[in-house]
Specification:
- The complex is a heterodimer of chains A (356) and B (275).
- Chain A has 356 residues and is of the alpha+beta class.
- Chain A is 26% helix and 35% strand.
- Chain A has 9 helices and 20 strands.
- Classes of the chains: A alpha+beta (356), B mainly alpha (275).
């Protein structure tokens, strides 16, 4: 079932949580709502679930207006950030809940309930924990029980609020791969909220990036990564260096850097900033050649597949650079050494008034 | 690592412990024992005769009747208050929270007088009720009302903070899974607070049985009609029927002791419910 959100706005008191947001999730898609805290992503998810009412705008399921439909009748599965498992019920009863509270004439017989719950617990690999209480489970196990419980009522849509938010790093990694595989198996239209860009880019078919109640950009992980629409997107999706300056006569003059900017051929200058990702920067011994600028190595961090360096350019700013281990061994830079810095790719954005 | 224990000289410790034990003995244990000693001073037969006296039996029945009405009413009020104040934010919530505690702040005598003023025959409401054959003041309905008022906060005070700390996540989860209000309440909300509810009910019962001040004002002390057990104790005492007074008082004390035991047992379980 597809989900569509049209021009939805929502405020809480004076705080505008969502400002004219429109969004479509196609049938069988797995979409991530990504954004910093306070960007409105959870409010949007709760509005789609029917747990919150929009001030304006409509929510459509399968093309039908569902804005006024009660959460109970939306046919959704919802996984809460802190799981919201029923603390007084066993794992088995938690999963069975949705089936047991159905109206008498729709309620499956006890044997069918037991079979369905057992199957679901097998699917989430927890069939051996059926008679435990939620408080006796680990975070990752609770998460999977919450998922099984949501799936028990055969929802048409699955909504997940920060599904891996309160788990430690290793369990997160495992669970999100597992969620991706599960989605590939059951192909349920799914929307999940996260503040972790890595999670969104790794798991989702499409990523919708929100900031201050507005959608900044939506697209495949690759589109967002390769063609960020705004500095915010660029900044949010990984480590970048910012160079402030101006554009004039088709050139961007950004402190120590100068690059072509044919979009602004005029002679009057406009404030602009250049962005270079930390892994799109070359470092070399200074041979006095043209291009780039000099900076002093302050710190080298060698743990991991890439080597991270912090450098101090002469203008008092700070620079983050990531280079491959091979390049690092070739160059063998020492703290205090002066290196020539040459960004391979600089993205230039005109500075919007009122925004950093 | 545990913090180092304070090291007082041995003599100081012994004196402090001795003082504490003496205070407990003097103010708690001696009076408690005295009640039973006085009650049984003339033997078990006299005790039995005193508590099976028709007026005493009536007082016990009336007290139980009042508790049997006031406690369920306040359990229901308390649940409603806990649910509304604990799970929702609305304008005026703090005012309502303060009002819940009003019966604790107001002297029971004042509460009783207010009921006499509002429901007495000279008031418009009381006059109208009397015209329809309903006596409130100096009758059982007044005693029930006064008891409900005085014991109102006990259940609510247990449930509001607990339900607030438990939040609404589980209720929302139940709703998304298709459960209606009553199913959610019965299967999720109520089981989550059942021990705290029982705890509040025990406190509420103990107070409902023992309430004196407000009930004393509205009851009119009519023997065999509007005397509850605490009032019966007072009546006998004022008539220098000391042994009878203490026999009745021993019943009240037994209720209190049972409530203490139940409270100790329940508070352990109620602690588990905090998230």
């Amino acid at each position: 079932m597809s989900i569509e959100v049209r021009s939805v706005s929502k405020s809480f008191g004076a705080f505008l949580a969502l400002d004219d947001v429109s969004l479509r999730v196609g049938n069988g898609e797995l979409v991530a709502l990504l954004g910093p805290s306070g960007s409105g992503k959870t409010s949007l998810l709760r509005i789609i679930a029917g747990l919150e009412e929009p001030d304006r705008g409509t929510v459509l399921f399968h093309g039908e207006d569902a804005t006024r439909r009660d959460a109970r009748e939306r046919g959704i599965g919802f996984v809460f950030q802190h799981y919201a498992l029923f603390r007084r019920m066993t794992v088995f009863e938690n999963v069975a809940f949705g089936l047991r509270v159905k109206p008498r004439d729709e309620r499956p017989p006890e044997a069918a309930v037991r079979k369905r719950v057992t199957d679901l617990l097998k699917l989430v690999q927890l069939d051996w924990l059926g008679d435990r209480l939620p408080s006796e489970l680990s975070g990752g196990q609770r998460q999977r029980v919450a998922l099984a419980r949501a799936l028990a009522v055969e929802p048409k849509v699955l909504l997940l609020d920060e599904p891996f938010g309160s788990l430690d790093a290793r369990v997160r990694q495992e669970l999100r791969r597992w969620l991706r595989r599960l989605h590939d198996e059951i192909r349920l239209t799914s929307l999940f909220v996260t503040h972790d860009q890595e999670e969104a880019l790794e798991v989702a078919d499409r990523v919708v990036l929100l900031d201050r109640g507005r959608i900044v950009q939506a697209g495949t992980p690759r589109e967002l990564f390769e063609r960020p629409a705004t500095p915010f997107v660029l900044d949010f999706l990984g480590s970048v260096n910012i160079f402030h300056g101006r554009v004039e006569n088709g050139r961007a003059l950004l402190g120590p850097l100068s690059v072509d900017y044919p979009e602004h051929p005029h002679s009057e200058s406009a404030p602009a900033s250049g962005y270079a990702r930390s892994w799109e920067i070359d470092l070399a011994r200074d041979t006095g050649g043209p291009g780039g600028f000099l900076a002093t190595v302050r710190h080298v961090s060698v743990a991991g597949a890439v080597v991270r360096l912090e450098l101090d350019p002469d203008d008092g700013s700070s620079l983050k650079v990531e280079i491959s281990r091979e390049r690092f061994e070739e160059l063998a830079p020492e703290p205090g050494e002066r290196l020539r810095v040459t960004p391979r790719k600089v993205r230039v954005f005109l500075t919007e008034p009122g925004r950093e | 690592m545990s913090a180092p224990r304070p090291r007082e000289p041995r003599a100081v410790r012994l004196v402090l412990i001795g003082l504490a034990l003496a205070a407990i003995g003097l103010f708690l244990l001696v009076p408690l024992a005295a009640v039973f000693v006085e009650a049984f001073r003339h033997g078990a037969g006299a005790w039995f005769a005193a508590v099976s006296d028709p007026d005493a039996r009536h007082a016990v029945k009336l007290t139980l009747l009042v508790a049997a009405i006031a406690v369920p009413v306040n359990a229901a009020f308390g649940l409603a208050a806990g649910w509304a104040l604990g799970k929702f934010r609305f304008p005026g919530r703090n005012l309502v929270l303060t009002l819940v505690d009003l019966p604790f702040a107001v002297s029971p005598i004042v509460a009783g007088l207010v009921f006499v003023l509002v429901f007495g025959r000279s008031s418009p409401l009381g006059g109208w009720l009397a015209g329809h054959g309903i006596e409130v003041v100096f009758a059982v309905p007044g005693i029930v009302l006064a008891t409900v008022f005085v014991t109102f906060p006990f259940v609510a005070r247990e449930l509001v903070p607990l339900m607030q700390s438990q939040g609404t996540d589980e209720e929302e989860a139940a709703r998304v899974l298709g459960a209606g209000f009553f199913k959610t309440f019965l299967r999720v909300t109520l089981p989550n607070v059942k021990w705290a509810l029982l705890y509040g009910v025990v406190l509420c019962t103990a107070r409902a049985v023992g309430e004196f001040g407000a009930v004393s004002v509205v009851s009119g002390h009519i023997r065999g009609a509007t005397n509850t057990l605490p009032l019966h104790v007072e009546t006998l005492y004022n008539e220098y029927a000391t042994q009878g007074a203490f026999a009745a008082a021993s019943l009240l004390t037994l209720v209190a002791l049972a409530a203490m035991l139940a409270k100790a047992f329940l508070s352990r379980h109620a602690g588990e419910e905090a998230p």
